[in-house]
Specification:
With about 140 residues, the protein is an alpha+beta fold. Helix content is about 25%, strand content about 25%. It has a single domain, classed as Murine Class I Major Histocompatibility Complex, H2-DB, Chain A, domain 1, CATH 3.30.500.
């Protein structure tokens, strides 16, 4: 990762977290974790988000207007040959204030795309788990 890519990831992930944590839906104390997925291409940005309790079902959650932040992150984290990720997955653990981001591209991104075929499974696939927040 280049220095600019690392800087972009730090800056933009913090900006995303700030936008998310000030959402009215998250003023409700009934959530432990949050997950948002963004599918970014040169033509469009698609975003969906959910909040979770430890054992309850996922609750669809409005996401902030963060399309521009994801576009900027997409551009600034391109590889040296111009390659870019397709899907960004962001998870937040409320009590520990931990934030993790994962990026997926190519064929591996297919299962994460926001489509009518997978929208029924996507909320559970995205559910943050304890291991998501473990230090590497």
């Amino acid at each position: 990762m280049t220095d600019d890519s690392a800087a972009a990831l730090g800056e933009i992930s913090q900006a995303l977290a700030g936008e998310i944590l000030t959402m009215p839906d998250l003023s409700d104390p009934e959530w432990d974790t949050y997950a948002m997925i963004a599918e970014v291409s040169d033509e469009a940005v698609g975003v969906t988000a959910y909040r979770y309790t430890e054992t309850g079902p996922p609750k669809p959650t409005r996401h902030p207007e963060v399309y521009g932040l994801f576009r900027e992150l997409h551009e600034r984290t391109r590889g040296t040959d111009g390659e870019a990720w397709d899907i960004a997955i962001m998870k937040i653990h409320r009590d520990t204030a931990q934030l993790v981001m994962n990026f997926v591209s190519g064929e591996a991104a297919q299962m994460w795309r926001i489509t009518p075929e997978n929208i029924g499974n996507l909320p559970e696939m995205l559910r943050p788990r304890a291991e998501d927040f473990e230090a590497v």
